[in-house]
Amino acid sequence: MAYSWFKAFHIIGIVVWFAGLFYLVRLFIYHVEANQEPEPARTILKNQYQIMEKRLYDIITTPGMIVTVAMAIGIISTEPEILKEPWLHFKLLFVAMLLAYHHYCGRLMKKLAADECRWSSQHLRALNEAPTLMLVVIVMLAVFKNNLPTDLTAWLIFGLIIFMAVTIQLYAKIRKRNKEKLMAQMPQVPQTQN
To answer: Which residues does the record give as heme binding sites (predicted)?
Structure first.
């Protein structure tokens, strides 16, 4: 019975953790793009994003990570023989990368708050794809274990995921270019002196 409780809360923790990771980097993108806004909007937006990022990281994302890891330890404690499985070693490698990604996002958040982040919104969009790829690999390993499919269907699914990531990047570039064109076409309002 303990195994089922650990597994249920492990899945809940994963959902919360990934929801936080997906939205956190999206907030970073908006935070960076706020630099293109005129004052006072720039300062207002950056302050608001900073509050949202901190709350998301501290109240949702990090607790989700802690629950996920704690419940995984609980699962392993009920089935210690699972540690001998090769698929679990690979899964744990990807989980370690995900933990590093989580903490790196915490560092980026601090740099954004100090106005020291040099990442462009385009770079952050690419960074935002990392947890998606890790999630796919982790879930595939958990479901298929040592029988991870390597047939054509698996490669088509992998290709579809890569295609979606590239499409998102292209969409962002097109949207940015269209916004720049629109801004260039807008008539400039002359400044009046008082």
So the answer is: 10, 91
| Cβ contacts of 30-34, under 8 Å, gap ≥ 24 | 31/112, 32/112, 32/117, 32/119, 32/120, 32/121, 32/124, 33/121
Does some domain include residue 98? Answer: yes
Closest CA to 130 of 174, 165, 91, 156: 165
Is 54 assigned to a binding site? no
Ligand-binding annotation for 102, yes or no, is no
Which element (helix H / strand E) includes 93? helix 86-113
- Global pTM? 0.79
Residue at 16 is within a domain = yes
| 188 in any annotated domain | no
In a domain, 160, yes or no: no
- pLDDT of 102-137, one tens digit each? 999 999 999 999 999 999 988 898 899 889 889 988
Domain residues for 34? 2-148
